[in-house]
Design brief:
By secondary structure, this protein is an alpha+beta fold. The protein contains 16 helices and 24 strands. A seven-stranded mixed sheet has the order 3-10-11-17-14-13-12. A five-stranded mixed sheet has the order 21-20-22-23-24, with helices on both faces. A three-stranded antiparallel sheet has the order 4-9-8. α14 links the parallel β20 and β21. The longest helix is centred in the first third of the chain and has 20 residues. The chain starts with a helix and ends with a helix. Bound molecules: adenosine-5'-triphosphate. Adenosine-5'-triphosphate binds next to β11, β14, β17 and α13.
Length: 506
Amino acid sequence: PATSMEELVSLCKRRGFIFQGSEIYGGLQGFYDYGPLGVELKNNIKAAWWRTNVYERDDMEGLDSSIIMHRQVLRHSGHEATFSDPMIDNKKNNKRYRLDHLVKDQKADVIAKVAELIGEDVANFPAVVAALNKKPAEASAALKTAGVRDPFSGEVGDWTEPKPFNMMFKTTIGPVADEESYGYLRPETAQGIFVNFKNVVDSTSRRLPFGIAQIGKAFRNEITPRNFIFRVRELEQMEIEFFCTPGTDEDWHQHWLDARLAWWEAQGIPRSKIDILDVPKEDLAHYSKRTYDLMYDYPTLGYEEIEGIANRSDYDLGSHTKAQNELNLTARVEENNDSIAKLTIPHPETNKPVVPFVIEPSAGVDRALLAVLSEAFTKETLENGNERIVLKLKPHLAPIKVAVIPLARNKSELVELARSIKSDLQKLGLGRILLEDSGNIGKAYRRHDEIGTPYCVTVDFDTIGQSAEGADQSLRDTVTIRDRDTLAQERIKISELSGWIAAHLK
Ligand code: ATP
């Protein structure tokens, strides 16, 4: 695995996985562009998630809802009132920080002093942050007294009182911008699922229990985007809302925890690198009955959230439904006089309308990609003493499945044969096959090790019966296959190549 974020950032830029957004104009903080290899890896991760969670189950449907949503959706979901992070300004240089990040990044003695001044145990960091939020005047004084430094200037800051900063991006809709004509870019894909609950039920005749899966972009105006693609302002999520009968929710919660851990393992993230955080009651979001955060051990950052799996009770459908008072909701919801739909489904036993409970496994695509890259990243010393970097990606995730390499670029017979082999392999539908005719076989191998190509197929002079030392005709119409991980080379007949590759990459 990678030992630092830096070596991943450098590989990603060098080989074309990820670039800074709007780079030629100086870059835009919190936005990244996925390059030729990044887009393949990302698509492969999403396809693997979709396969496991939609195709291989019988209780799931898919959805692709719009990114810009009616403001009422994000009002009744609770995001307008509560989707905010605590923000604090340094009056000395007008820099702005997310309060918990600012405090977390201080030296241990400073953090301890802040905790003491605000009257909380330093071991319970979320409680310290909560207290700072609840008592803004004391918080400002505590940060000054404890000597909290500005990460940018390095000097002790003159701190304002913290205040909540709503992270939703707002945009105007239509040609006339007035008070009413705005919507939000969704801060999570989940709300698109809840507002389509009735559409999906009516059009598929689903009964409980069943789920809806969605992959798509979400937008959060993070106060301090950082750590490469770990915390960005435009992110992608893979979310499931699984609807079940109240009372069965705890079993389903456990089911999804197990299922999701198995999926991560199949993507090359060993179970030992994920910590399950059973979020303490006092730190739970207001809608949550219980939440497991899966924490992956990222290089440089340490254990940070890669996926949240929440039992959201009947909060979401209960918030978006009309006729709330008739429905015996268990969650505390805000009154809704705007919705025109009753979001119920027949109870599987009594047939009486019921608002289902929801289990939500919510994973970030960008954080998944970072973890997958980090686990696959390997530095090896070869027998000859040379060092090589190799990405030991699971074959189904590899951006390039096979590189077909003509040994000499200026020999048209070799190049044409390689091109036709590439074209045949492409037809297998395994993903991208690359014709690698840069002409330098050593460089080509090094590049394909670094980008995780499982197999390199080389077309050489023996293949066309023209080896320099007098051709060994038994090698005619054969090619070599080089294995990325073992470096073993095997000669195989061209006529058997497609079958071999299909068998090894399935
Ligand atoms: P954090 O506490 O790290 O800000 P969160 O608890 O706000 O994350 P959720 O709202 O639970 O995150 O979102 C679900 C998933 O979406 C996260 O587990 C993460 O993988 C991903 N995610 C959330 N915010 C970001 C972001 N700013 N950049 C990249 N991925 C994100």
